Structures are given as C-alpha cells and as structure tokens.
C-alpha cells in the first residue's frame, strides 16, 4: 500500500483506518523504528479488543524482534494496564488501540521505559521518519541476533498494584453499575474489583471492537444514557463508564446525574494530599476553579497547565506533582509512573463514598461549586480572526484579564471562559464557568454570538 504517514501520525500517537491508511506491513516497520529510536533491547506490547489489534500488534512485535529486541506480549489489556507493565518492568511499551474511535480505526500509543510518553517532540517524529524511509526503500537491515517473543499475563499484577494504592477493605458495601461499552473495561474491572465489598452490575462487558451498543466515548452524553437509566433502575450507589481502551473513567451519582470530571479531580486531589501533605497538584486550564480552591484548602500547591497529556506529564515530572487531572476525565498519578489511569481514580471515588454514609451527590457537592457550560464547538472560517474579535471585545472592559497559555482565557468578576482552536478541524472550542447559571449563560451567549457572527 502507499501510505501517507502525515495522516496517521498524530501529535501523541498513531491512528488511522485499517487497512485503508495503514496495515500490518506498516505496523512491522513501526516496531522496528520504535526499537531503533528508543534504543531498547526489550519492550512490552499490548492490544485492545478491535478485530485488527491482534494482527497489528503481532506484526509490530515481529518488526521489533527483527531489530534485536526481546518482546513481551501481554495480549488483551487496557491502556493503563500497558502503562503498568511499562512501569513495573521498566520497559518501553506499545499499546494498540484507537481508544473511542469507530471500529475501522486502530492506532499505537507508545511510551519509553517507566511509561514516559512519546510524542512528536520526544521520538514520534523520528519514528515516523524511519518508517517513511523504510517504506519507500524496503525493509530495514535485520539485527545480527533476532530478539525473542514471549507472552506474559499482567492483569493480576496490575489489579494488585492499583488495590495497594487505595484501601477499600473497610468500606461499606456499595452497589455499582459499570458500563464498559464493549471495551477493555470488561476485561479489567472483574479482576480489579474482585474481593471488594461491591455488588457489581455489569453492562456491555463483552469485548467487541465493533461497539454494537454505543460508542465507547463517555464524553458524549448520548453514550451514558443507558448507564444513567440502569443506575436509577437498580437503585445503585453510583455508575462508572469507561472509554474503549479503559484509560478514562466517567462517574454518575445515585440519581444518574453525571459528576463533572473537575469534581472528581478535586475529590481525588484532597485524598492524595491527605497522603502527601503539601504536595503539588496539576490541573489543566479548563478544569473548574473549584480544583485549585480545594487544593489550597487542603494545603497543596495547584499548578495550571495547558490541555493535553504531554503537558500534564511534563509538568508532573518537572514539579514532582502527586496527582493531575483534566476536564476530559484523564487522571494522572505519581504512584502510577505519572501515567493516566481512570481505574485508580474510580477506586478513589469508591473509597471516598464507601468511607462515609452519605450519597455520592452529597459527597461531591463540596467539590462542584460553579456553573459550567461544558465544551461547545463552533465551526469557523478563520480561527484567528474570530478569537481576535472576542479578545478585543472583552479586553476593553474594566476588571477583565486575559492570558494565552492555551488559546484565549478571559477572566472577569465571578466568571471565566477559554476559547481554543482545534488542531485538526476548523473549530473553536468554548468552555465557560461562572458563580451561577445565569451569569454563565450570559457570558456563553455573548462569546458565541461573536464567534459565530
């Protein structure tokens, strides 16, 4: 096939349609390039439940072994299970998944030893360049000694590590509905939750990369409707929804109402600060103001950063932060090699809820303090011009401040908003937060009128 790698090598990973945009031949070249760029003599490889994942990951392993690296195949796993293997065994790793994308997509998330991320500026551009060279001129020269390919189960070790970080032994019995979306949560949840005082109500645990019930993307409200209804019908204490590769976790309370990821970030931050007094907590600039407030109230040091896991992980490494959270339900832990794991965040929620007698809605109320718009996308012809119009209008007002750490952030008396351009589409993304619903709606509508003029 003729491959256009500019279409499939993204900022943080490889992702595209199989076999139209990439196939096992290319996967084998990616494996060889990964070994050359990381200099690894051993790596670990895992994959999700997509129909194309076993073949692609196997091809990647062959390419890596041909370059002399020993390959440990851990088979079906969640992305954070791959990070566990990379951290626990101190090996570079590759995870075959397209997360919540439709069934015809697949991709590779790669990391260095200790789950350190690989992105455009940290090796991915070099991997792409090698693959392009080899794809045009034939296979790379094999190593003098071919590496061995072996298999290992890491699910039990992953579950034990997570349970060692959060004590759930003394919680009261809880009834929890889990929607795995036919993704990897159906593989990990039964083992992680085994032996805990939980009544588990499983939804869509059958591994099926065609996603027959709904997209495995809980960020879209349409995809948690089934979970919300089931929580109410079961009289459950809470519901959890995982995305396709089960590295993100979304929470709904006993009423079936979504709990904002910012409230989960604040709750987990408070718990981590109880273990590590005075610690640093990373939050991106779209998380609620409640996050830095809670961090300070609990004696911690909040650090604001750009959106995106590469920025979060870099800041965590730089500051020695104990925890980081994003508005998109990615949660990062120092105790998990600074990598993101929705499962560990879920265990914290279960421990907090089960350690007291109240409901989840009552528990998170102290962490959910403001009215938020959620992310609103607008299609625009000129992102810069639309942003400039908004900046001009608001910057002229008394008491208003602006910054451009990531897009345009504007703050006023009791409100703020952020307007960010999409890197891949002609969109502007708006997030607004205010002290009350009326103020939020007023600011939201004014900004949208300017953006969509």
TrEMBL record:
Cofactor requirements of the protein: Mg(2+)
EC number(s) from the headed UniProt entry: 5.4.2.2
The Alpha-D-phosphohexomutase C-terminal domain, residue ranges: 375-449
Domain Alpha-D-phosphohexomutase alpha/beta/alpha: 7-132, 157-256, 264-370
One Pfam match: PGM_PMM_III
Keywords: Isomerase, Magnesium, Metal-binding, Phosphoprotein
GO biological process, one term: carbohydrate metabolic process
Keyword Zinc listed: no
Ribonucleoprotein in keyword set: no
Gene Ontology molecular function terms on file: metal ion binding; phosphoglucomutase activity
Family named by the database record: Belongs to the phosphohexose mutase family.
Protein name: Phosphomannomutase
Organism from which the protein derives: Streptomyces fradiae ATCC 10745 = DSM 40063
Gene (name only): algC
